[in-house]
Design a protein that fits this description.
- This protein is mostly helical and about 120 residues long.
- The chain has one domain.
- Helices cover about 70% and strands about 0% of the residues.
- It has five helices and no strands.
- Helix 2 packs antiparallel against helix 3, helix 2 packs across helix 4 and helix 3 packs across helix 4.
- The protein is elongated.
- It starts with a helix and ends with a helix.
Length: about 120
Amino acid sequence: MAAERELQIAPLVQESLVHNTRTLNNLHSLTASLLGVAAGILGLESLAGFAFYISFSLLAAVLFYVLRVAPSSLPAGKSLGDTSRYFRRGGGFEFWTGGLMGGLAGFVLTWTLFYGLVRA
């Protein structure tokens, strides 16, 4: 009953959810490419490069959450990491790690390109 009342007071607008998801996907793609450039210039190889990508992608998600998503005051019944107000399907796993697989191809592409340019 409380969730229904919340939706009546502050409804979820489909266009806003789509915009937020698109913005997050763009952030993941850009972050993956920039991390690929950094990993290539640093000369990282194998698991060190992938660990670099995973750790800094999660750091980018945390920074995005802290700077853009985290409300100044949490509504009643919401936890600190709850992103269901801004993203479809409750956010959660999709918000924090959804861009890891989507940005992996861009990361590997720029990683190998810049590694080859620096080491050549």
